[in-house]
Amino acid sequence: LPDSTAQAREHYDRAIGLIDSELVRKPRDPTLLSRRVLYLAKRGDCPRADAGLASLIDLRDPPLYAVFRMAVALEICGHRQRAVAMIEQALGAGFELAEIENDPDLRALRADPAYQRMIQRRSAGSADTRAPGP
Question: What is the mean pLDDT of the chain?
Answer without folding.
Answer: 90
